[in-house]
Amino acid sequence: MTVFHEHFFVITGGPGSGKTTLLQSLEDRYFLVMPEGGRAIIQDQTAIGGRALPWEDKSAYAELMLNWELRSYREAPRRNRPVLFDRGIPDVIGYLELNSLPVPQHLSNAAEHYRYHRKVFIAPHWPEIYEKDAERKQSHDEAMATYHAMLEVYRRLGYELLELPKENLDRRVQFIMDNLEGMR
User: Fold this and answer.
1) Cα(173)–Cα(177) distance, rounded to whole angstroms?
2) Using one digit for the tens of pLDDT, what is the confidence trace for 52-75?
C-alpha cells in the first residue's frame, strides 16, 4: 500500500513555467517552501569547477538532485500545515528518462519510500513567459518535453496532477490556496 504524506505538496513542471516565482509569492504569504535544487547545484558546480552539470555529467547531476530532494524531504517540518516543494524526487526520474539515461534502483526506491501528497500541482509549458538564462539553457522544445516527462512520471507513480492555469500570478496563487484549502 502506498502511503502519501498529506502535508507535503509538490509543484513541478518544465523549466521557465513560473514555478519559482509562484513559490516565492506563496512563501511571502507565510507558506513553508522547500526550494528547488537544480539551479543551486548548477551554480555550486560552476563555482567549484565541478562536472555534475546537465551539459557535462547528467548522471552525477541527477545524483546531486536526488540528494537535495532527500535532504529537503527530511528537513521539511512535520506539522499540520502545508509544506510546498519546488520539485520532488520523481522529477529526478523524469530528468533521467528525458535524457534516455537509466534510472538506478535506489532512485526508484526513494520515489516509492518518500511520498508527497497524492495531488501534485504541475505548471504547463508557457512559451510566453519562458526565458533562457545562465542556468536555464533548454530550448522551448526541451522545456515542453520536460513538462511531458513530469506528467508521465508522476502519473506512473500514482499521483493525481492539478494543472496550474496560465494566468497572472495572483490567479495562480489563488488556485493553489483554494486547492490546498479543499485538501485539508
Assistant:
1) 6
2) 999 999 999 999 999 999 999 999
Helix 58-75 with 89-98: angle, nearest 10 deg: 170
> Whose CA is closest to 10, among 106, 114, 109?
114
Kindly report the average pLDDT of the chain as a whole number: 90
Between CA 183 and CA 167 the distance in angstroms is 22
123: left (phi over 0), alpha (psi -120 to 50) or beta: beta
Contacts for 54 with CB less than 8 Å, ≥ 6 apart: 38, 42, 61, 137
pTM of this prediction? 0.91
Cell of 161: 496532477
